[in-house]
């Protein structure tokens, strides 16, 4: 049963492609963000509701690149789901930096699931439409 399920999931190439493209964009966004040690900001910062510490890096939505803003906009449903499952009221207390890494991995998981699921659904419905189209095509008899 498990092997058959994995073979079925492996067929959804669009899901894997969207997942890989999303991972590359997310890595690029995190790489361009300065770490806490590199941050020398002493001036006032215009905050937004999307400002968070992610992977030991402060993310300021208003000061980020167009790629980062686009990624936040298209990942918003998964980011909101990630915020809901973060361990905010746990018995274990985390430091600010540790919690930023927990947030980063939670965001990575939820957004990856989102893009893989979107790719799989598009692929699934695309295959269904292709089958219907082939069924309605006239056949030639020789």
Structure overview:
There is one protein chain. This protein is mainly alpha-helical. It has a domain of 79 residues. A two-stranded antiparallel ribbon has the order 1-2. Helix 2 packs antiparallel against helix 5 and helix 4 packs across helix 5. The protein is elongated, with a radius of gyration of 21 Å. The mean pLDDT is 77.
Question: What keywords describe this structure?
Answer:
mainly alpha
Low-confidence sequence ranges? none
Oligomer category: single chain
Rg to the nearest angstrom? 21 Å
Mean pLDDT across the residues is 77
Q: Treating each run of at least 4 consecutive H or I residues as one helix, how many helices?
A: 5
Q: What's the helix-strand series?
A: HHEEHHH
Spatially, the strands of the biggest sheet line up as 1-2
Terminal-residue CA separation: 43 Å
- The general outline is elongated
Structural class: mainly alpha
| Main sheet summary | 2 strands, antiparallel
**Range of helix content:** 55-70%
Assess the beta-strand content as a share of residues. Answer: under 5%
Report the count of strand segments: 2
């Amino acid at each position: 049963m498990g092997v058959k399920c994995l073979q079925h999931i492996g067929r959804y190439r669009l899901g894997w492609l969207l997942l890989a493209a999303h991972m590359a964009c997310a890595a690029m966004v995190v790489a361009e963000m300065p770490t806490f040690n590199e941050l020398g900001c002493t001036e006032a910062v215009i905050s937004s509701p999307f400002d968070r510490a992610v992977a030991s890096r402060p993310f300021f939505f208003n000061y980020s690149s167009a790629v980062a803003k686009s990624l936040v906009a298209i990942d918003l449903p998964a980011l909101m789901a990630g915020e809901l499952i973060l361990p905010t009221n746990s018995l274990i207390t985390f430091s600010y930096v540790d919690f930023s890494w927990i947030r980063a991995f939670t965001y990575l998981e939820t957004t990856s699931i989102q893009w893989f699921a979107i790719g799989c659904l598009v692929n699934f419905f695309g295959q269904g439409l292709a089958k219907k189209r082939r069924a309605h095509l006239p056949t030639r008899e020789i």
